[in-house]
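re: the backbone from monday

yeah here it is again, tokenized this time
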């Protein structure tokens, strides 16, 4: 028997023994005597909107401390957003909960949802200076993305909304470019 064959035989035997031990323990675990039935526990009550909101804020603080950049798909940010969404779902007319959700979407660069929630909040309550800046940022980002994809006509309303919330020379320049591109496209 060659050295290669011996090594292969040892590996095969080791693998067989390991799988036998694993399967044997798995079999033993499934053949335990049945435990007496536990009384069914009542489902945990859902948290209140206030509790969801507090948890969203707590998770956002933790995420802010943990991550260098803020993205929606990071676990803590995602959990914070889920809790904020639950708070808004429980009390859709509460501007504080909607403000938190819009902020979280903005911070995590989920521009479309941020923009939608800033619009909803604007219909409910007066936006403060910081909120108008974040709303403007979300609209400008969507406008920029549309413009960079050659969708000038679609970019214009977002850039206009951004300027409505906050004057910004860079956004105004993008709007000029979008309007010129839209006009050039219309001529062709």
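seq for it, each position gets an aa:
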């Amino acid at each position: 028997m060659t050295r290669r064959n011996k090594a292969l035989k040892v590996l095969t035997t080791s693998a067989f023994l390991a799988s036998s031990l694993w399967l044997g323990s798995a079999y033993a675990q499934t053949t335990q005597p049945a435990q007496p039935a536990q009384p069914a526990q009542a489902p945990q009550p859902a948290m209140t909107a206030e509790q969801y909101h507090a948890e969203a804020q707590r998770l956002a603080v933790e995420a802010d401390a943990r991550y260098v950049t803020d993205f929606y798909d990071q676990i803590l940010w995602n959990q914070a957003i889920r809790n904020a969404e639950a708070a808004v779902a429980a009390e859709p007319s509460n501007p504080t909960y909607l403000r938190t959700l819009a902020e979280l979407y903005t911070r995590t660069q989920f521009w479309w949802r941020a923009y939608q929630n800033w619009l909803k909040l604007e219909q409910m309550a007066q936006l403060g200076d910081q909120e108008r800046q974040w709303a403007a940022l979300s609209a400008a980002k969507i406008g920029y993305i549309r413009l960079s994809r050659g969708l000038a006509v679609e970019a214009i309303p977002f850039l206009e909304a951004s300027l409505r919330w906050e004057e910004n020379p860079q956004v105004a320049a993008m709007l000029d470019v979008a309007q010129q591109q839209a006009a050039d496209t219309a001529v062709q």
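Confidence is low (pLDDT under 50) at residues 4-44. Residues 3-30 form the longest helix (28 residues).
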